Amino acid sequence: MKIKIVRSILEANDRIAEENRLLFKEKGLFVVNLMSGPGAGKTSVLVETIKRLKEKGVQSAVIEGDIEGTEDADRISALEVPVVQINTGGACHLDANMVRQAVQDLELNGAKILFIENVGNLVCPAEFYVGEDMKVMVLSVTEGEDKPTKYPLMFRESKTLLINKIDLLPYLDLDLEKLKNTASKINPSLKMFDISCKTGKGIDKWVDYLLEFIN
Ligand SMILES: Nc1nc2c(ncn2[C@@H]2O[C@H](COP(=O)(O)OP(=O)(O)OP(=O)(O)O)[C@@H](O)[C@H]2O)c(=O)[nH]1
Ligand SMILES: [Mg+2]
User: Fold this and answer.
1) Residue 109: per-residue pLDDT
2) Whose CA is nearest to atom 29 of ligand 1?
3) Is 167 in contact with 189 (CB distance < 8 Å)?
4) pLDDT per position as a tens digit, 154-177
5) Which of 32, 33, 34, 43 best tests ligand 1's pocket when mutated (most atoms within 8 Å of CB)?
6) How far does residue 204's CA lie from ligand 1's centre (Å)?
7) Atom 13 of ligand 1 has which residue's CA nearest to it?
8) What is residue 153's predicted lDDT score, i.e. its pLDDT?
9) Whose C-alpha in 61, 64, 91, 103 is 20 to 30 A from the C-alpha of 76?
């Protein structure tokens, strides 16, 4: 009985997510659902990515998801791109209905790409499709090479993995190759980039890859 209830929640979510997908398509938006554990660097990735896209004449819009507060939306707003903050009030992930409501408040101003920064959580966000074209996961090197094994769902669901904070590698015992091999075993088609939002290393490569999806 319990399983039935959970399934119906997910089915209702997927119906709204499909409506979101059609709306995004109509608006000509490529939509990225950005996920990670707390503090892996989602907002930092957005800041570095949006700056570079702007230089190439591609405008972005952002939906920020947090349990509380507007810190991340304030950081994005400083880049002068449209941004809406969702406060989930306790929920550990965004769902399709929250995104649908946020989109109504978003002035797109010619944006071609919409980034949805999910709530910092390594598990729940990966369970909810919100209508995005691509799930992108950020993992910071300080989190350890065992994360793909312990938290496989997000690695499995994501198309792209950004391994962030590589500037910190000299101070850690992390085996980067082992981490990548483990992630590949869980998701053989996972596209991975080593990046540092602090030094900018690897960000251009990631942005070039992203541009291939934007028309
Ligand atoms: N050394 C280093 N620090 C980084 C890097 N990227 C982000 N940080 C720092 O990591 C901390 C968290 O970064 P955020 O971008 O706020 O992470 P987040 O995933 O958006 O965090 P939540 O939204 O709270 O889940 C900040 O202090 C950043 O300055 C990096 O490449 N190298
Ligand atoms: Mg953030």
Assistant:
1) 87
2) 44
3) no
4) 999 999 999 999 999 999 999 999
5) 43
6) 18
7) 41
8) 98
9) 91
Task: Give the Å distances, CA to CA, from 7 to 100, 153, 159.
Answer: 20, 17, 24
Q: What is the pLDDT of residues 41-71, one digit of tens each?
A: 999 999 999 999 999 999 999 999 999 999 9
Q: What token pair was written down for 32?
A: 């990225």
Give residue 21's pLDDT: 98
Q: Which residues are bridge partners to 134 per DSSP? A: 32
Minimum CA distance residue for ligand 1 atom 32: 165
Query: Which amino acid residue places its CA nearest to atom 8 of ligand 1?
Result: 41
CA distance 35 to 118: 5
CA of 115 to the centre of ligand 2 (A): 12
Ligand nearest to the CA of 45: 1
- Is the pTM of the predicted complex or chain greater than 0.90? yes
The amino acid at residue 174 is L
Residue 162: name the closest of 183, 182, 146 by CA: 183
